[in-house]
Design goal:
- It comes from Planoprotostelium fungivorum.
- Pfam families: PHM7_cyt (PF14703), RSN1_7TM (PF02714), RSN1_TM (PF13967).
- With 768 residues, the protein is mostly helical.
- The chain contains 31 helices and 8 strands.
- The strands form 3 sheets. A 4-stranded antiparallel beta sheet has the order 4-7-3-8.
- A hairpin with a 2-residue loop joins strand 1 and strand 2 (119-122).
- The longest helix is centred in the middle third of the chain and has 38 residues, at 451-488.
- The radius of gyration is 32 Å and the shape is globular.
- The chain starts with a helix and ends with a helix.
C-alpha cells in the first residue's frame, strides 16, 4: 500500500489538528480553576467541579452526567440536543465497527485500474479504501447496495424512536404550569380588558354540546387570569435605555470621586465647545442625580397618562386553565375568525420580540420572500470562493491552476501538504464564520414575534447555506474542473461551440439544423460517458477533504468552545482596565459568558451528519472522524450546559422539529448519491435503490402526521365541531412539578417598559 501526496497532506492535517486540540485542552485545564466565575459559574460550590485538580473534573463529567438530571434542571432544549448527539453517535459507532470488517477489506482488495488517455490510473494509499477501487460490474457492489438499505432502515428506526420520545416529553412540558402554556397571543383584533377577552374566547371556541349554555356560564367565571394589551413603547424604550446609561455614569462618578480629593465637575459639551462650557460647570454627581430624577419623572408621567403609548391591536391573554389556551390556538381555522385575526401559542416571556408584534401578516409574508431570495443569492455568491477553495484540495487541480506555485511548493513537502490539506478547509471555515450573524440579523427583520421562531428559521437557512457551500462545493467542485477540461478537448464539443459562436448570429438555417443534429446525436453520449466516469471515480476520492473538514471541526472547534480564549481576554480587559463599579463588573461577566448557541450547533452538526452519511459507504474511514466529532460535541455540550451557560429562555425542545426533517433530507441525498455511483459503476441492481426515496418521503409524512400536532399542542386535540365540556377544559391543569409554579404568572407578559423603574438611589446601594 503506497502513499500519495494527498495522503501525506491528510496525515499532516491530522497531526496539526491533534496538536492544536491537545494544547487547547491542556491550557483550558490549567486556566479553569483560576477563573471559576468564567469557566464554571453555574457550579460554584460543588466540590466535584470546584476541586483544585486540573483533570479530576473530566471523570466527574463523563461518569456522573445524567440526561434525566439535565432534563429536570436545564430543560427539554438541552435534553433533546444531547439525545440528538447521542443518537447520531450510536449510529456511526455501530456502522464503523460493522464496516471495519466488511467494506474495508472489500475496498482494499478491489485493485481497480483504468486507462485515462495517456496513462493507467490505479488507486493507492487512502484511495484504495474507497469505492473508486471497485471495478465496474463487480459483485462486490452488492455490499454497497445492501448496506445502503440497511443504513437507511437504521436511520428510520432511530428517528422514529427519538421523535416518539420527544413527543411524549413535549406533552409533559405542555402540562407544566408555565405562563406560555396558559397564554395565547391574539393579533389583528383590539382587546383592552378581561371582559373583551372572555367575549372573544366565547366567540372563537367551538361550543356545540347540548350543555353549551351551562358550560359557558361556568367557564365565564374566572376564565381569564390576565390580559396584557401590547403597546408601541418605542419612546419608553429609549427613555429606559437612557435611564440605564445614566445609572452607570452616576455610579462610576461616585466611585471615581472617592479616589479624588477634589470635586469632579461636569461641563456641557457642544459643537462649538467640544471640551465643555465652563459656564455650565456643575458637580458631576449632582448633575447625574438631577438628570436621573428628570428621566424618572418623565417615564412615570408617560406610564400613568399613556403618553406616547399606542395599542397595536394585539394582546396576551393568560387563562386559568391551560386547555382553554390550547383549544383556542387550534380553533383559529374556523369560519368565525375575521380577516386578519390570528391566534398564536405564546412563547416564553423572555423570548417575546415586542417590536415585531405589530407586524402585519402580509408584511411578514413579503419579508419572508425577500429573506428567501437574500439567502439564495448569498448562497450562490458564497459558492464562488468556497468552490475555489475546494479546487485546492487535489494536486491535479493545483497543478492545472497554478503550475509555477506547485513547483515552488514541491520543494517543501510539509508546506505543500499544509497548502493542500489544511489551507482550503481552514479558509472555508473562516469564510463561513460571519454567515450565522448575517442570516440571524436578516431573519430578525422579517417580523417574527418570537425569538424561538427566529432561531428555528435561522437553523433551517443555515443548514441550506452550509449544505450548498460546503458539501456540494467540495463534492462537485473538483469534478467540475475535470469536466470542463475534458469537454474542451472533445472534438464534437469544440465543433458545436464554433458553430454556435459564428453561425447562429447569421441565423443560418442549415447550420442550425447541423448544430442540432450534432448536439442530439454523438455529443450527448460522449458527455454522459465523461460525467459518469467522473462521478464514479472523483466523488469517492473527495472523501479526504471531507474527512479533513470533519476532523478540523472536531479537533479545533470543540476544544476552542471549552477554552473560549477571546471572551476570556475581553473579560480580563474589562475587569482590569474598564470596569469600576459592581454593576459594570456584573455586566462584563454576563456579556462575555453569553448563552448556548443551539442554532449554530444544530446547523453544523446536521451538516456533518449529511457529509458523513453520504460518504459512509464510499470511504468508511470518515465514520472514525465522525465518532471523534460527536464524542467531543457531546463532551463539550455536557460541560457547557451544566456548568457555564445560563438558559436564555425555554423553547420547549422545538428546535428538534427542524432537525428531524433535515436528517431525512441528508439521508435522501445519500440514497440518491448511491444510486448514481452504483449506476456509474454499471451495477445492474442500482435502480432498485430508487425505491428508498419515496420510502423516505412517506416516512417523513407519516411521522409528521403522527407526531407534529401532538408535539405542538399537547395530548388534547380539538377538531372543528368537537364537544367541549367544562370538565375537559379543567382536565390536564394539574400541577406536574411544584418547581414550575410561577407566582408572577399574571404579569409575565407585561412589557418591561410599562413597569416603573426603581428609584436611582435604591438601585445603587447594592452596586457601589
Amino acid at each position: 500500500m503506497g502513499i500519495t501526496t494527498s495522503d501525506y497532506a491528510f496525515v499532516v492535517a491530522t497531526v496539526v489538528n491533534l496538536i492544536v486540540a491537545v494544547i487547547t485542552l491542556v491550557v483550558f485545564c490549567i486556566l479553569r480553576p483560576r477563573f471559576p466565575t468564567f469557566y464554571y459559574p453555574k457550579a460554584l460550590g460543588r466540590n466535584q467541579i470546584n476541586s483544585g485538580s486540573y483533570f479530576k473534573w473530566i471523570s466527574h463529567l463523563v461518569f456522573h452526567s445524567s440526561l434525566k438530571r439535565i432534563l429536570k434542571r436545564h430543560g427539554l432544549d438541552a435534553y433533546m440536543y444531547l439525545r440528538f448527539l447521542q443518537t447520531i453517535l450510536f449510529i456511526f459507532v455501530a456502522y464503523f465497527l460493522f464496516f471495519a470488517i466488511t467494506l474495508f477489506p472489500i475496498h482494499f482488495t478491489g485493485e481497480y485500474s483504468f486507462d485515462d488517455g495517456n496513462k493507467t490510473v490505479s488507486f493507492i494509499g487512502l484511495e484504495s479504501l474507497t469505492l473508486s477501487n471497485i471495478p465496474p460490474k463487480s459483485p462486490r457492489l452488492w455490499a454497497h447496495f445492501l448496506f445502503t438499505i440497511l443504513l437507511s432502515a437504521t436511520v428510520y428506526v432511530v428517528l422514529y424512536v427519538l421523535m416518539k420520545e420527544y413527543t411524549e416529553l413535549r406533552a409533559v412540558h405542555l402540562e407544566k404550569r408555565l405562563p406560555e402554556n396558559h397564554t395565547v397571543l391574539i393579533t389583528g383584533v383590539a382587546i383592552h380588558n378581561e371582559a373583551e377577552a372572555t367575549s372573544y374566547v366565547q366567540r372563537i371556541l367551538p361550543f356545540h354540546s347540548t350543555t353549551r349554555r351551562n358550560s359557558i356560564n361556568e367557564v365565564e367565571e374566572g376564565l381569564v387570569r390576565s390580559v396584557h394589551v401590547v403597546f408601541d413603547t418605542e419612546e419608553l424604550v429609549e427613555l429606559q435605555q437612557k435611564y440605564e446609561r445614566n445609572i452607570f455614569k452616576l455610579e462610576r462618578a461616585i466611585v471615581e470621586q472617592e479616589s479624588q480629593p477634589e470635586r469632579l465637575m461636569h461641563k456641557s459639551r457642544s459643537v462649538k465647545r467640544p471640551l465643555g462650557d465652563p459656564n455650565t460647570e456643575k458637580d458631576r454627581i449632582e448633575y447625574y442625580q438631577d438628570k436621573l430624577q428628570g428621566i424618572y419623572r418623565d417615564i412615570i408621567s408617560r406610564q400613568e397618562h399613556d403618553v406616547g403609548l399606542k395599542p397595536v391591536n394585539a394582546a396576551f391573554i393568560t387563562f386559568q386553565h391551560k386547555n382553554v389556551a390550547r383549544l383556542l390556538t387550534q380553533s383559529v381555522l374556523t369560519d368565525r375568525l375575521l380577516l386578519g385575526e390570528q391566534v398564536h401559542q405564546a412563547p416564553d416571556p423572555k423570548a417575546v420580540v415586542w417590536k415585531n408584534i405589530s407586524a402585519s401578516p402580509n408584511g411578514v409574508f413579503v419579508r419572508k420572500l425577500v429573506l428567501d431570495a437574500f439567502v439564495l443569492a448569498m448562497s450562490l455568491l458564497w459558492v464562488i470562493p468556497i468552490g475555489f477553495f475546494s479546487l485546492l484540495t487535489t494536486v491535479e487541480n493545483l497543478d492545472k491552476m497554478m503550475p509555477s506555485l506547485v513547483n515552488l511548493l514541491r520543494k517543501s513537502q510539509l508546506l505543500f501538504s499544509i497548502v493542500e490539506g489544511i489551507l482550503p478547509v481552514l479558509l472555508t471555515i473562516i469564510f463561513l464564520a460571519m454567515v450565522p450573524f448575517v442570516i440571524r440579523t436578516a431573519t430578525s427583520k422579517v417580523g417574527y414575534h418570537s425569538q424561538i421562531k427566529i432561531e428555528l428559521v435561522v437553523t433551517q437557512k443555515l443548514f441550506v447555506f452550509y449544505y450548498i457551500n460546503v458539501f456540494m462545493s467540495f463534492l462537485l467542485g473538483p469534478s467540475a474542473l475535470d469536466l470542463i477540461k475534458r469537454l474542451s478537448t472533445n472534438s464534437d464539443f469544440n465543433t458545436i461551440v464554433t458553430l454556435l459562436s459564428t453561425n447562429i448570429p447569421l441565423q443560418s438555417e442549415p447550420m442550425m439544423i447541423y448544430v442540432m443534429t450534432q448536439a442530439l446525436s454523438s455529443f450527448p453520449g460522449e458527455l454522459l460517458r465523461i460525467i459518469v466516469t467522473l462521478l464514479s471515480t472523483n466523488i469517492p476520492l473527495q472523501s479526504e477533504p471531507m474527512m479533513i473538514y470533519v476532523m478540523t471541526q472536531a479537533l479545533s472547534s470543540f476544544p476552542g468552545e471549552l477554552l473560549r480564549i477571546v471572551p476570556l481576554i475581553i473579560r480580563a480587559i474589562y475587569h482590569r482596565f474598564l470596569c469600576k463599579t459592581v454593576r459594570e463588573h456584573e455586566k462584563a461577566d454576563k456579556d462575555t459568558i453569553g448563552y448556548f448557541d443551539y442554532v449554530g450547533h444544530y446547523s453544523q452538526d446536521l451538516l456533518i451528519f449529511a457529509i458523513v452519511i453520504t460518504y459512509s459507504t464510499m470511504q468508511p474511514m470518515i465514520l472514525l472522524f465522525a465518532i471523534v466529532y460527536y464524542c467531543l460535541a457531546l463532551f463539550t455540550t455536557l460541560y457547557n450546559i451544566q456548568f457555564v451557560f445560563p438558559r436564555e429562555y425555554n423553547a420547549g425542545g422545538v428546535y428538534w422539529t427542524a432537525t428531524f426533517g433535515r436528517m431525512l433530507f441528508g439521508l435522501g441525498v445519500f440514497q440518491l448519491t448511491m444510486v448514481g455511483l452504483l449506476g456509474a459503476k454499471q451495477f445492474y441492481a442500482s435502480p432498485v435503490l430508487l425505491v428508498l426515496i419515496p420510502i423516505t418521503i412517506v416516512f417523513y409524512r407519516y411521522c409528521d402526521r403522527l407526531f407534529s400536532k401532538r408535539a405542538k399542542y399537547g395530548p388534547l386535540q380539538s377538531n372543528r365541531g368537537a364537544t367541549i365540556e367544562i370538565d375537559e377544559i379543567r382536565e390536564g391543569s394539574v400541577l406536574i412539578d411544584e418547581e414550575d409554579l410561577r407566582d408572577n404568572m399574571k404579569d409575565s407578559y407585561q412589557q418591561n417598559e410599562l413597569f416603573p423603574p426603581e428609584q436611582p438611589m435604591n438601585r445603587m446601594e447594592e452596586n457601589l
